[in-house]
Amino acid sequence: MVSTSSINKCGVKNLALVISNVVKKFGEKTAVDGISFTMENPGVFGLLGTNGAGKTTTIRMILGILEKDSGTIQWNGKPVTRENVKFGYLPEERGLYPKAKVGEQLLYFAKLRGLTAKAAKNSMEQWCERLGVTEYINSVAEHLSKGNQQKIQFISALIHDPELIILDEPLSGLDPINADLFRGVINELASKQKFIIMSSHQMHLVEEYCNDILILKNGKTLLKGNLNEIKRGYGRTNLSIKCEADIKNLVEQAGINIVSADESGYELKIKSEEQANEILKNIIDNGISVLKFEIREPSLHEIFVEKVGGAE
Amino acid sequence: MKEFFTVFAYTFKENVRKKSFIISTVIMLLLAIVALNIPAFMQNSNKDNTAEEDNTSIDIHTTVFIVDEKKVLDEQDLEGLGIAFKGYAFKAENLNNVDALKKTIKESDDSALLIINIKEGQPFLEYWVNKDDDQIIPSQLSKAIKNIYAGRVLKNADISDEIIQMSLNDAAYEVNVLGKGMMQSYFSGILVTILLFFAIYFYGYGVSMSVASEKTSRVMEIILTSVKPSKIIIGKTVAMGFLGLCDLLLLIIVSVVTYKLRFPKDFKIMGETLNLSNFTGPVLTMLIVYFILGYSLYAVLNAVAGATVSKAEDVNSAMMPISMISLIAFYLSYAILGLPEGKFATIVSLIPFSAPFAMPCRLVLTDVPAWEIGVSAAILLASTILLGWISIRIYSSAVLHYGKRLKLKDLLNISK
After folding, report:
1. What is the domain partition of chain B in residue ranges?
2. CA distance B358 to chain A (A)
3. Chain B residues within an 8 Å CB radius of A96
């Protein structure tokens, strides 16, 4: 898919967000060590890593609020600065004046981003209605629940219709209903051709949205690329089986590694699909009925744990 | 510019509505009104007292024994002295009694001994008193006795009474004070120094708190994605300063109105007229100029202090070095009250950190040469710009630093 926004007026295709060889040091410690990635198309990009891996530092450098030591970050061929790009930023924690009224601070943020007073008010009202927080406009921020504060912050990130949106743990502190509400908004933003960079520890969320991902560890790139391609690269080596009787003996006979075993059955690591077929045949031959049998690619969760945990 | 005004308007609005601000402003205004009303109350109660005093003031509190072997004074002259010096009785004594009299004087404060002699044709007086705390009497006595003696000498030379009277009259004079009275100046000087110190400290603290709360709530990160750090720090500082200025102007207006309405014109403390006539228009203008300059200097430093903390509780300790500087500067300014014209005073009012307290204080105390005011203001302005420029650089990096509180060394490193 070639989006319209990544083609400029002359019809020459630009790479929208290009980050190349970015380095940031804090004293002796290298927080980000030569990261490069490109976001060619609108959609959601997943920035993953353990705590302290350098995600926030990377995000801050993209936002231009932290000076990088070397490397370049470009948006449509121009350096990323607050003058060139309209950013929307949802920081991981807080980001609201605790003692100020919700409505007033939202208007303040909107005006700082160049909206007129009237446009700011309209946009605020629309978003508050959309996320169901209209009744809190005149409340002091610190009196709101964590979930509602998160909604206000989400509005503050989106109120000025930004082009490049950075969401740091967008769903933290939300109940399932509100999490769905946020999902809907993120989906909508993606379909509106926005460029979204999302950082999250919730792997299923990343799997749901992200086309491309990058996993960081200790400031270095551990893995990056298209999520589907990465998974395909691993091959279909995961097998989930659930049967009415215990199949432990059969699995051990076949020499297959057991990843985990619980009430919902066995998670197995297979070398090839033939190995799976073989054990299925054995199970059926033994007269055990099969409730579930699935050969699949590893989940992002598994890839993450393997990559980040294993590379010590 | 638009962003600056947005930051300015928001900061101003948020702070002007704060309960702490409203309460402190009201208290300050009430204090000013009460303080300016005190003289009026004091004078009212004084009036009642003085009426009673007139009746009692005839009491004699000091007896002056006079030993006059050369008969410079006769009986009539002694009576005349008694009438001229209210509260004093004059009693002729014998030379033989002198030692006994001295003993009496030593034991009590309410008697004195005057020995009159003639030396080289002129009366010579020896005055004995227990404590030398009543300087007026000997000098006045000397003058009175000289007049009596000279009158007698002239009369003996057949000069007419008229001419004697004329020649003995003092040249008439009137006292017109052009300089600034000490007592009054001292009072005004303390007032100015304290007022400026509190205004500069209080609003500087406001800047620090505002920066720290923005940083700890991480609002800073959001704002920084759309506004340059320099615009935030300038907008915030100017807004707090403007708030302080409004407060100061309000205080000045309320004080001036109360003063005009309620302050007695001839109010005196310890014999000196006390009023606020030292606060002329130009002095008030310079007071405001020095508030603006001094506030700006301390505010940019406080903004950096606020930017170094990760927890709001740490603001006070981060501000510590700046508070110390301002306290030392305050005491230096306090010290020049006694000697507002000395070299020390000049130096203190040129140092940028103490100038905002010292110079306005000197302006009410004495006449400061125009060049000194100019140089002092220029140095203050230049330091503010220089420190402001450094502060913006430090602020931009410090404001995103979380974790351990930044030390001065770290700050210098990141500002490079």
Report:
1. 2-36+180-415, 62-168
2. 38
3. 217, 219
